[in-house]
Fold:
Amino acid sequence: MSFYRDFNDKTAIAAWNTAERKPFETITVNRLSPTIGAEISGVDLSKEIPAAQFDEIRRALDENLAVIFRDQTISRDDQKRLGLRFGTLHRHELAASKVVAGAHYDPEFLSWRTGKDSRFTAGDGWHPDVSCDPSPIFVSLLHVTKTPPLGGDTAFANMYLAYDSLSEPFKLLLDGLTAIHDGAEGWNGYGAQPEPGKTFPASEHPVVATHPRTGRKFLYVNQSFTTHIVQLTRPESDAVLNLLFSHVEKQLAFQTRIHWTPNALLLWDNWATQHHAVWDYYPEERWGDRVSVVTGNSPRA
Structure:
């Protein structure tokens, strides 16, 4: 085992796994891995959630970053109602979702259908959603309405641990740097086009940000949207970003795969995680509807 792995990763994981977690009183939370992901039961999302129970759902999300509710029979209105408990609903720039949703198009939903005629699937690379926005999505709620008989998991990575596991000298280099996140970088590969008269958003965010709810630092660059680090030369920026992208992708100890079942809703912290839709079910189909939440704030160093 290398010194890098032995020293930094073990220390970061140990700190995460030994952190004190209070018991829950109104919900049951079963963790899916030691470092990220949980399953919540004891909640009926088709009904208004009591304040005390919602507070515990928020705490479970803060602690586990991605949580799934299974066996939920919910409508699109139910999904939006839960999203509104977290903040203002996001409106996505991708006009392609209008075609997918057809007559049911709602600008506060992002919908897609992946099947045997698809050239790609949404989210098939490590990323947080729309980090290119000035106020990126803070929380997302995904309802997969058609699942393949096998496969189609969503993988998640813990960006607190991605930062914590770096060496102290490298953290000193990254702290204070900013990077450009460009929507064209993320969506041109899908053949997507912005609305007529508009351009895809591009924003500058800190490479290392501090989470407003937990006060913890997390890594905020990703291979899908981040183009370069502002304060570095292009070769320096490419070298640093490629190292960080690889760091996120290869560290299985920071990741989990969430398996979809019918009538499940997935809720995740879009700032402190990255996710990857696993397209291993071709030629079967997978359909989904996502509602997301913005707070009007952007990641801060």
About this structure: The chain has one domain: 3-294. The mean pLDDT is 90. The helical segments are 3-17, 51-64, 76-84, 96-101, 159-164, 168-174, 183-187, 234-250. The two ends are 33 Å apart (CA to CA).
